[in-house]
Amino acid sequence: MTTTFKAAELALPGITSLQPYQAGKPIEELERELGIKNIVKLASNENPLGVSPAVQVALTTAVKGLARYPDANGFYLKDALATKFSVDASQITLGNGSNDVLELLARTFVQPEHEVIFSQHAFVVYPLVTKAIGATPVQVPAKDYGHDLDAMAAAVTSKTRMIFIANPNNPTGTFLTKQQLQAFLDKIPTHVLVVLDEAYYEYVPEHERAPSMQWLDRYPNLVVSRTFSKAYGLAGLRAGFAVSHPDVADLMNRIRQPFNMNQLALTAALAALLDEKFLADSIAVNSRGMRQLIDFCDAQGLNYIPSHGNFLTIEVGPQAGKYYQQLLEAGVIVRPVAGYELPNHLRVSIGLADENDAFCAAMERILSS
Ligand SMILES: *Cc1c(COP(=O)(O)O)cnc(C)c1O
Fold first, then answer.
1. What is the pLDDT of residues 302-323, one digit of tens each?
2. Domain span at residue 30?
3. Is residue 179 part of a domain?
4. Mutation choice for ligand 1 from 93, 125, 226, CB with most ligand atoms inside 8 A
5. Residue 60 DSSP label
6. Confidence grade of residue 225 (pLDDT, cut at 50, 70, 90)
């Protein structure tokens, strides 16, 4: 390596200030480090039921076609999504995970002179895509760990181009009601795109869900983002999508990589969408597991942030970092959230009953030692 080569001086200014996304620790990595098996991973809000049997069958067939390029327009998946959500296929943008869609949105609409608003304790990808462009991130202090929509609306200026809202939010699990959201949308001028990230939508009880897809007719500046990574159990394949005004989708489509959703992901997402039983089972497992973790917290006198997602963020105190390490040594991977300005909390994904038990037992041992 020559010493005169300084890559950072050649990079875009916004990039040098970024830290790479910190993913949950992979099971294989901890296995290697500790030389143990039976590791429980409750760190990335994945579906503990795994992949739906119907998806597995569809994938077996799809493998045979992999010599061909994928369907660049995802015709069958968009058609099924359009039917399910009563929207037009021209409103849908498919993504290599919904992270891809969030980045596409920022790259399509946000310029360096713009401001992008998001909440404290919200998903880390929002500041990441903003800073990568060199735009100005505007982080609005949270209220009760969740989005303070009044303060976010008040932060809008003539330079604001985008607002990210996660509902439910990750990593706090906080939730905004449809009334709160609609009152907010009524206040936001149309030069600002409101990106409503509903990655955990399926876990919200039906009567509480916002009719976000129906709102698209009324709010042309609204973009709804969803994913197959959580309740649909396809985090490893990368499949997500946005639904928006057709003109927004058309513009995003111009910079989208032609095959950003691969053929296995297209096939699996379609099969997952049609497998309503697996989705219902996933939601039921989540409700029971949430109860288990809440009962544990109550018994231990631990505070937690009431969650509408598939995870619970528990206040374990200033030793959170140490507990995270001790849990790893016990073979349980959870997620430290100090990077989200929550240094006293740990985020625990809801697993199967015995996985939740493993966390509770290890945590109880750690707390009492
Ligand atoms: C998990 C998650 C996503 C989904 O990301 P994918 O790229 O679709 O896997 C999006 N937003 C939030 C807030 C999330 O927690």
1. 999 999 999 999 999 999 999 9
2. 23-50+277-368
3. yes
4. 125
5. H
6. very high
